[in-house]
Here is the input.
Amino acid sequence: MALFKSRNNKELVKLIKDHFGIISKVAFTYSNSPLECEDLKQEISYQICKSYSSFKHKSKITTWMYQIAINTCMNHIRKYKPVLEELSAKHDRPVDEPQTHPKSQLLKEAINSLKETDKSLIILYLEELPYKQIAEITGLSENLVAVKMLRIKNKLKEELNGK
Here is the structure.
């Protein structure tokens, strides 16, 4: 690819290094295993590199990166969800998968039970992005983001209090 050989190569590497936390957090939230998380991080990084020349600077670079990260994860889920469900039904937790704190595991399970659009909203909210920026990333109005966030938070509270 000519893009990777261009003068923007150092700029791209720096961009991904500086904002790798965004990539990692989104990938972790959408993944079911450490291996899947690594695959998602690589795919998100690739998509950022591939799309970098089309970035128009109409929004913050982080807004653009979140958009790519979430879209990449949602495409991954649509493509691989049936296969992943079949595999997870056949196998228990892998031996090398680290144990997580029970409360954070419950929260992750509750978030994973949400619809994909709601999951995207809560991920961005947990990243402490303002509603305005969440609206830019998702293409929703700021008011709709606020209403949906209230509903999502209430749904998560109900689910977590029920467990």
In short: The first helix runs from residue 2 to 5. DSSP finds nine helices and no strands in the chain. The CA atoms of residues 38 and 138 lie 24 Å apart. The mean pLDDT is 82.
